[in-house]
Amino acid sequence: MEINGAPIVAEASVTVESGQIAGLIGPNGSGKSTLLRAVYRHLRPAAGAVLVGGEDVWALSPRRAAARTAAVPQERSSEFDLTVAQTVAMGRTPHKRPYAVDTAEDRAIVADALALVGMERFAHRDFATLSGGEKQRVLVARAVAQRTQLLVLDEPTNHLDIRHQLELLELVQSLGLTTLVAMHDLNLAATYCGRLHVLDAGRLITSGAPAEVLTEQLLRDVFGIGAQIDVNEHTGRLRLSFYPLDRAADRAGTTQS
Fold first, then answer.
1. What is the maximal distance between C-alpha atoms in the chain?
2. How is 10-39 classified by DSSP, letter by letter?
3. How far apart, in whole angstroms, are the C-alpha atoms of residue 206 and residue 193?
């Protein structure tokens, strides 16, 4: 992918298996959001292909592509002047002719999506009046109502407190959808992703299970941090405790002296 002729992401091959949550991790500016924008047709790649169900989404019409991939981007240009139910119903647009009214099936799908994310009692509330966590749930419900093969999430836990971060990721995990998600929090990525793809300076460094990818050496080389790595006894997944590298060097020097 290029922006104003300058390459942002190059030679990145990312695979997401059916029903898997795959995470994109990397430092700020590594190209995570750029890569996701190519997947959900917001930024056309200069070369290569984005295959969903064996077809390149960039070779499809926008409507057909939207029927294959649902996205919850990091940025929202403005709040929707819609109710919660109307916001979720937007997910049905790729499956309808222009200006077609909602059918009974559409309304049932919207109701099911709201129930799935625990927001059914908010159906008639204005979207703009919701909290950050509630809005994220509604946007996930809209993506669910879209009935696609791939769900793309760009920093879905941004600006949420820790409880709502966990609740949202538990929800996404419970959906069982094929999901590609960009995340900053490496502990959350290790807990909820079955596979991780590491980007650095626009290039894919490595891919694999969290236990294979999140090593002390990689964290040092890519993120510039030290880490103590063990297993969380409650989740059975990796737990990372971070520290600045200069502090580690200071401790080593003190010990030697």
1. 77
2. -S------TT-EEEEE-STTSSHHHHHHHH
3. 15
H-helix or E-strand spanning residue 167: helix 162-175
Does some domain include residue 220? no
HSE (side-chain half, CA atoms, 13 Å) at 19: 2
CATH number at residue 140: 3.40.50.300
Token pair 């919207």 is at which residue?
Answer: 110
Q: Is residue 189 part of a domain?
A: yes
Residue 116 to residue 225: CA distance in whole angstroms: 39
* Cβ atoms of residues 210 and 190 within 8 Å: yes
232 within a domain of the structure (yes/no): no
Domain that holds residue 120: 2-208
Tell me how many helices (H) and strands (E) the chain has. Answer: 10, 12
Pairing relationship of beta strands 195-200 and 21-25 according to DSSP bridges: parallel
Nearest-5° Cα angle at 83, 162 to 161: 5
Evaluate whether residue 64 is within a structural domain.
Answer: yes
Angle at 142 between CA 137 and CA 147, to 5 degrees: 125
pLDDT reported for residue 257: 44
Splitting the chain (257 residues) into consecutive groups of 10 residues, what average pLDDT does each group show? Answer: 66 91 95 93 89 91 92 74 94 87 93 94 95 91 94 91 92 94 96 96 94 96 96 93 77 50
Domain count, the chain: 1
Both tokens of 22, joined, read 């795959």
The radius of gyration computed from the CA coordinates of the chain, to the nearest angstrom, equals: 20
